[in-house]
Structure formats: structure tokens, C-alpha cells
């Protein structure tokens, strides 16, 4: 069994998800590292081919959001007929207002968003609904309307389990609250601050989905042309890691993925792409062995 297709248990969901999951941002919204041609979302037909290929590969987790513009609609259009093949996760709170988004964490706003997601995704139930926090995450939790609306949707059978996408101290608060079955955390070789939250979540049987596991492309070969000017990532860490692997971009990705794979508190790493070749390549690169001494050095560089 390939590492990327191994299934890891989420106790509070009583289910298993593949170590590599699919992040459906880039099939619905302009996004990514590079110029307009590199960040432009695919056509409907191209998105459909990506989605079908994700399931054909054996990946069983698809993560989307209202804020990902046409992502939910495309999932509904192209793979709703294969609904029993994947765990479906979406998010509420940040809402689609293409070409932008807006925030509404009120009870009515969340309830309406969940209903719209169900309609667009062409499904009777969403397996995991997560809070897509905005500029005042603490206030959102304090007011309680968002969680109340999500729990009522759960009681009504519209969603099965609840999650939150947040980092740092507020992630710790969510983990300790008992309200959430899954946490979506930002974590990578060059951004390790959620390590304790991953450990705590595992202790409580809470699943952990990793976003930005490849640092939005900064831990792939695509970063190399952007090292001179891009400031969206820690360039010094990336440069040192590239030096460690002989400036081999694929080796950098292998290192980054194996770093995540070694953490048994991580349920799934969400890999976002609009190119099926890149997804297959990531699965293959995870199979590359990494010497323990190299991993130790890399972890120290990224810390």
C-alpha cells in the first residue's frame, strides 16, 4: 500500500481517511503560486477530470468550502454520483461572493450557508462541516451563534460531524471545548507552531486535517523561480532546505511530505491542485526514503 493512500482513523468520526486528501480550492477559485496562467482555475471540464481522477486514485477525502467559489458546484456536478466513495468536508462562515468573499457568522447566515452547500454539492448530508473563521475568530466563538447553527444542522441530519479551521491558542480552545470532532490546522516543515495542538487533538480522539502542508507550493519545485522576490513564505528556511537536498525540488517535496507522514496525530494532509499529474507525483514522492539524519536536520531548519 502506498503511504499516501494508507487510511488513518478519526475516532470521533468512527471513520478512516486516506493520508493524502484532496483540497478542492484550486478547482474552484483562482489560487496558487505564480502568475495569472499558473493561478487561474481550470474549466468545468478540466475540474471534472481532476475530481474523477482523485477518486480513481483511491483518495477518499474531499475538502471544499463555500468560499472556494465554484468548487462546491463542480463537486456536485461531477462526483455526486460517487458519493459513497468519499468523505465530504466543507466549511461555513466565509461565503462566496465571486470574485471575492464575505463573512457572516450569524445563526441565519450559517444555516443558509449549510443549506446552499447541500444543494450545490447535490447531497443529502455533508460528513464534516467546519468553521471558516474570519477577522474576529475569538468573537465568533464567544457569540456562539455559529456553533449553535452547526449543531442544529447536525441534529437535523444535514451534517454528521463538526470541525474548525483555526490555529494557535484558539485552536487549543476549540480542541478543549468538546464541540469539534476534527480540527483543520496549518502545519508544515517550515511552520511547526501547531505541533502541540496536533498532539492534544490526538489525545482526545479528534481528527487533524492539515492545510498548507506544502506551504502553498513553497515546499515544491515550483518555488525555485520565485525565491528572489516572493515574500509569502520564509525564504531563508526554504533556501536552507533546498541546500540540504542539493537544490532538488522534488526531494524538497518528499522531505516535506515525509515530515508530515511521520506524525501519527495527523489524519490527512490536504493536497490542493488543479493538475492530476501533480497529485500523482506527490503520492510517488512520499515513497522516496529520507535518511533519519536528513529529516532531523530538516526539522531543525524548519522549526
What are the secondary-structure elements, in order, as H or E?
EEEHHEHEEEHEHHEHEHEHHEHH
Weakly predicted, low-confidence segments:
none
Strand proportion: 15-25%
CATH class: Alpha Beta
- Return the CATH topology: TIM Barrel
Molecular shape: globular
Task: Please report the total strand number as a whole number.
Answer: 12
Number of helices: 12
Domains counted in the coordinates: how many?
1
CATH superfamily: NADP-dependent oxidoreductase domain
**What is the helix fraction of residues, given as a range?**
40-55%
Gyration radius (Cα, Å) is 18 Å
Note the main sheet: 8 strands, parallel, barrel
How far is the first residue's CA from the last residue's CA? 30 Å
Structural class: alpha/beta
Give average pLDDT, whole number. Answer: 95
Overview in brief:
With 303 residues, the chain is α/β, with parallel strands linked by helices. The chain has helices at residues 36-39, 44-57, 71-79, 107-121, 137-143, 145-155, 168-177, 195-203, 235-244, 249-261, 276-286, 292-302, and strands at residues 7-10, 15-18, 20-23, 61-63, 87-92, 94-97, 100-103, 126-132, 159-165, 182-186, 207-211, 268-272.
Amino acid at each position: 500500500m502506498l503511504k499516501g493512500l494508507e487510511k488513518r482513523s478519526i475516532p470521533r468520526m468512527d471513520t478512516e481517511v486516506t493520508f493524502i486528501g484532496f483540497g478542492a480550492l484550486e478547482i474552484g477559485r483562482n489560487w496558487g503560486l505564480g502568475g495569472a496562467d499558473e493561478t487561474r482555475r481550470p474549466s468545468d471540464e478540466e475540474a471534472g477530470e481532476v475530481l474523477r481522477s482523485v477518486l480513481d486514485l483511491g483518495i477518499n477525502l474531499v475538502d471544499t468550502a463555500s468560499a472556494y467559489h465554484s468548487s462546491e458546484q463542480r463537486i456536485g456536478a461531477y462526483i455526486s454520483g460517487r458519493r459513497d466513495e468519499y468523505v465530504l468536508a466543507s466549511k461555513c462562515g466565509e461565503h462566496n461572493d465571486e470574485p471575492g468573499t464575505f463573512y457572516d457568522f450569524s445563526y441565519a447566515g450559517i444555516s443558509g450557508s449549510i443549506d446552499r452547500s447541500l444543494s450545490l454539492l447535490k447531497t443529502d448530508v455533508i460528513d464534516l462541516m467546519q468553521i471558516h473563521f474570519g477577522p474576529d475568530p475569538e468573537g465568533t466563538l464567544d457569540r456562539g451563534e455559529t456553533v449553535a447553527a452547526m449543531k442544529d444542522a447536525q441534529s437535523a441530519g444535514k451534517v454528521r460531524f463538526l470541525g474548525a479551521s483555526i490555529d494557535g491558542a484558539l485552536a487549543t480552545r476549540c480542541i478543549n471545548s468538546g464541540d469539534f470532532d476534527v480540527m483543520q490546522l496549518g502545519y508544515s516543515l517550515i511552520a511547526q507552531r501547531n505541533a502541540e495542538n496536533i498532539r492534544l487533538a490526538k489525545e482526545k480522539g479528534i481528527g487533524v486535517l492539515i492545510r498548507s502542508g506544502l506551504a502553498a507550493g513553497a515546499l515544491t519545485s515550483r518555488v525555485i523561480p520565485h525565491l528572489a522576490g516572493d515574500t509569502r513564505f520564509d525564504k531563508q528556511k526554504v533556501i536552507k532546505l533546498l541546500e540540504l537536498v542539493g537544490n532538488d525540488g522534488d526531494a524538497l517535496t518528499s522531505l516535506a511530505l515525509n515530515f508530515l507522514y511521520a506524525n501519527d496525530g495527523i489524519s490527512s494532509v490536504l493536497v490542493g491542485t488543479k493538475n492530476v499529474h501533480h497529485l500523482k507525483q506527490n503520492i510517488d514522492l512520499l515513497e522516496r526514503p529520507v535518511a533519519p539524519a536528513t529529516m532531523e536536520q530538516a526539522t531543525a531548519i524548519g522549526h
